[in-house]
Amino acid sequence: MNAPRCDETAAWAALAGHFQAHGRDFDLREAFARDAGQGAARVAALSFEAPEVFADLSKNRLDAATLHFLLELARECRLEARRDALLAGEVANPTEGRAVLHTALRAPRGEGPFSDEVHATLDAMLGYADAVRADERFTDIVNIGIGGSDLGPAMAVAALEACTLPRQRVHFVSNVDGHDLAPLLARLDARRTLFIVASKTFTTQETMANAEAARAWFVQQGGTDVARHFAATTTNVKAAAAFGIATTFGFWDWVGGRYSLWSAIGLPIAIAIGSANFRALLAGAHAMDRHFATAPLAQNLPVLLGLLDVWYRNFHGFGSRSIAPYHQGLRRLPAFLQQLEMESNGKGVDMAGRPLPFGTSPVVWGEPGTNGQHAYFQMLHQGTDVIPVEFVLVKTPSHGLAGSHAKLLANGLAQAQALMLGKTEAEAAAETVPTADPAFDRAVLARHRSFPGNRPSTTFVLEALTPASLGAFLALYEHRVWTSGALWGLNSFDQWGVELGKALANRLLPRLQGGPQRGAAEGLDASTAMLLRRLVGGP
Ligand code: F6P
């Protein structure tokens, strides 16, 4: 579809002018102070309700004029028409010749493209998941997969631990490093273990190596029934059969790896939480899909977040965004979002192959609060870079421990407050610091102890971490990443950037396997040759 790239629009020029006049020096504290009701009107205008997710955007460096220009940008880039084309299944990934239809995986029966195939596979996969869940023999389920075949399921199983069975453990092995699989195998009983080999392509080196090692271990433990103890989730059903796997759940090339947790790749999630909860996860995501598809742009939360991302990346120049989930269950969320956002939008050319004159994906990173506070929040508060933070707060915990949840939430709220309000040197100077060297200059001490403030953040609130709210929250991020990628003119659905390293590793492997021998490092660049010699020895 023909649409201008963001920087070819009148809105882009208007945003550049607006940034010079009001954006560069925008001060959040002033914005709250000059607003009616000490910021109440600002908060009302910049708080948004989407299915299962409430978002407070008021602590961000934007105002009504910024939003106006950003929404103009979306209109000029024909965002709605492009979204409709995406959801209708037009080829959105032309470098791989594919449609992008993970949304079809969570559409109710009878709705959306490919409904019959999707629901037939889903029913079969969930029937199997419930049978495994009920099978007393299986105490351990091991998902072997990497990237999208690992991160989504691993994150979701951790997040939904409250729905899992205490007698059945679900493990995730991804790294080709034997230190991942070996210690796990040492704790397992082959007779009570089910392995799931999860790979869209069924060719990924890491996954194949781990699957073969697991099968060898199983046989060595006296296991004979590979067909019963191994299942596969893949689009390459033939390769799974060749591996000796009888139970395979397929999916389709229009499901991108990083969008595949909603497909058969979700099998370990379904085993962990049961079919009803898995359907609730899909329903939550579908509710967000409807919001994305139908809400006016000015109330469309994923679109607004994507626009904010463009504003921060291309005008403010912020190259990083930190995720701070205040829920231990979301400990793998930053890793999942890293793949979602950085594999999707970490690109340097547009759809037409033109090098981009502006920045694209920020670095996405984070750790659960409150742990991050005691590690890198120092830099967020006082470092030289401004890094927008996203706080994820969950109102109702899934545990019954008294007292801890209020403390957790108080910390999350306080961090956002501290980032925004900061502390002046005068405020710092007014405080007594018993531990400071009495000879140390008081004014200098106050400078060390002051906080610049005006550091932006977004706060999301979920009522509880449930399958439905998790589904909605993840779909929110998927659509947000699409929004910024579409405005930047990217193909957000390919990942050619991972190929070169894979090819070079395959070429280096025989040199490492050959051990110390003359000529093993021949033809390599001097640095790699030296490292190879150091690792394998030899001349
Ligand atoms: O290395 C990148 C990648 O292709 C991801 O996009 C994908 O999620 C991952 O590898 C795993 O691929 P597969 O599911 O085919 O094993």
Question: What do these coordinates show?
Answer:
- With 539 residues, the chain is α/β, with parallel strands linked by helices.
- The chain folds into three domains: 6-77 and 295-432 and 439-486, Glucose-6-phosphate isomerase like protein, domain 1 (Rossmann fold); 99-281, Glucose-6-phosphate isomerase like protein, domain 1 (Rossmann fold, 3-Layer(aba) Sandwich); 503-536, no CATH class.
- It contains 22 helices and 13 strands.
- Helix 7 links the parallel strand 5 and strand 6.
- The mean pLDDT is 96.
- The site of 6-O-phosphono-beta-D-fructofuranose has 14 residues, from loops.
Structural shape:
globular
Helix fraction, binned, reads: 40-55%
Total tally of structural domains: 3
Alpha-beta content class: alpha/beta
Bound molecules: 6-O-phosphono-beta-D-fructofuranose
Mean pLDDT: 96
Looking at CATH, which topology of the largest domain would you report?
Rossmann fold
Named CATH architecture of the largest domain: 3-Layer(aba) Sandwich
Q: Biggest sheet: strands side by side, in what order?
A: 1-2-13-12-10-11
Span between N and C termini? 57 Å
Tell me how many strands there are. 13
> What is the gyration radius calculated from CA atoms?
25 Å
Percent strand equals 5-15%
Largest sheet: 6 strands, mixed
What CATH first level of the largest domain would be assigned? Alpha Beta
Query: What is the CATH superfamily label of the largest domain?
Result: Glucose-6-phosphate isomerase like protein, domain 1
Provide the low-confidence segments as ranges: none
Number of helices: 22
